[in-house]
């Protein structure tokens, strides 16, 4: 199995997004989730991505749910040495006493320290391989947040620092405080705004890129139905709600390329990402998530799929056809392009 470097962290060429193992797109049982993970790791998918905010919150809980991390703990007890473990902090429940009651980010150094200790305890591990700040806090300079994360590296609690949904300017400021191993943001055939500034900044600084929702939250695979997404939050987004029908032409293009290669849509979407990242000079590791072991293995097959120049041109046209925004909350600053 080949490997990819995110900064100085060596990981599998495709990772595994653990969010979809919790309730967000339908969910599954913890035992079934761990079985899927076991099959993925057996096959060589060793880079696991979670967050303290993933999972169903317990009744009455006020902080990040933590239940996706807890689900992982028994798995890590047996297989910690075989995986590279990434988690995140910084998305919170609404914070009292802040200027807006809808504020959902916290980048204060004391919060970074307590969130890290809480994640280590929930995961049952001594160290986190890659610790991300999940969203910049508009009230805390990113230098202060990353300064606190650098102290966590020095203390041996985390090995590498990552950032999610930061702008190129925020990345430069953070990287001046401590090397950033990876930037995680949405990047896929239908979410390409990061190519304007963020991906070039990663290429310039030698920061790895971790594309999240690389399958368009499942849409690009062509296996979802309108009824299925109406049952979860995806049906409330413009792309998969009111623009569902209009966006089917995107799936048709992916399917046409897939047919030519006797591949699946998911493999085409991931192979496109790997090759686009290569063209842009950035080291990238997509983290698709699935509840099904056979799909995780299918996704790994993208590593061996070589798209030609005609395929890349045909797929490139998708960017002009997309209807609706990639932002899932009604706040433009929630994603990096809304602050650029
Ligand atoms: N940093 C951030 O703010 C952020 C935001 C979102 C996500 N993430 C991370 O990125 C990871 C992936 O993102 P995501 O789960 O939103 O989207 P995704 O990976 O683009 O899509 C996941 C969906 O695709 C389906 N799927 C996966 N492989 C498939 C295949 N081969 N064929 C058909 N369907 C397939 C899954 O359904 P089944 O389970 O039914 O197979 C699931 O519903 C998350 O787990 C999380 O770790 C980070």
TrEMBL record:
Molecular function as annotated in GO: oxidoreductase activity
Location of the region described as Disordered in the Swiss-Prot/TrEMBL record: 92-111
Name this polypeptide is given: Aldo/keto reductase
Biased composition (Basic and acidic residues): 96-111
Keyword list, A-Z: Oxidoreductase
Superkingdom of the source species: Bacteria
Coiled coil segments of this chain: none
Species annotation: Brevibacterium aurantiacum
């Amino acid at each position: 199995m080949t490997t990819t470097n995110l900064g100085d962290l060596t990981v599998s060429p495709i990772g595994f997004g653990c969010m979809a193992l919790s309730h967000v797109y339908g969910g599954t049982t913890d035992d079934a989730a761990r079985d899927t993970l076991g099959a993925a790791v057996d096959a060589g998918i060793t880079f696991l991505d979670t967050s303290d905010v993933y999972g169903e919150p317990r009744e009455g809980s006020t902080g990040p749910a933590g239940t996706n991390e807890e689900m992982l703990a028994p798995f890590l007890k047996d297989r910690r040495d075989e995986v590279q473990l990434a988690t995140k902090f910084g998305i919170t429940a609404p914070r009292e006493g802040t200027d807006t009651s809808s504020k959902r980010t916290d980048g204060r150094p004391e919060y970074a320290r307590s969130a890290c200790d809480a994640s280590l305890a929930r995961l049952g591990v001594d160290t986190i391989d890659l610790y991300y700040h999940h969203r910049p806090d508009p009230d805390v300079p990113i230098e202060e947040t990353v300064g606190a994360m650098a102290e966590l590296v020095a203390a041996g609690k985390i090995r590498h620092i990552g950032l999610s949904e930061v702008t190129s300017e925020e990345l430069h400021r953070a990287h001046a405080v401590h090397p950033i191993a990876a930037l995680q943001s949405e990047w896929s055939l239908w979410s390409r705004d990061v190519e304007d500034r963020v991906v070039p900044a990663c290429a310039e600084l030698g920061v790895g890129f971790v594309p999240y929702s690389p399958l368009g939250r499942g849409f690009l695979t062509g296996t979802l139905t309108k009824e299925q997404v109406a049952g979860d939050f995806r049906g409330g987004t413009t792309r998969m709600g009111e623009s569902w029908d209009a966006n089917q032409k995107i799936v048709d293009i992916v399917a046409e390329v897939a047919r030519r290669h006797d591949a699946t849509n998911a493999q085409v979407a991931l192979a496109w990402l790997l090759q686009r990242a290569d063209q842009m000079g950035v080291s990238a590791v997509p983290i698709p998530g699935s509840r099904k072991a056979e799909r995780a293995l299918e996704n790994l097959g993208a590593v061996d799929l070589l798209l030609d120049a005609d395929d890349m041109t045909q797929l490139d046209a998708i960017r002009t056809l997309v209807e609706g925004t990639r932002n899932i909350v009604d706040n433009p600053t929630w994603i990096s392009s809304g602050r650029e």
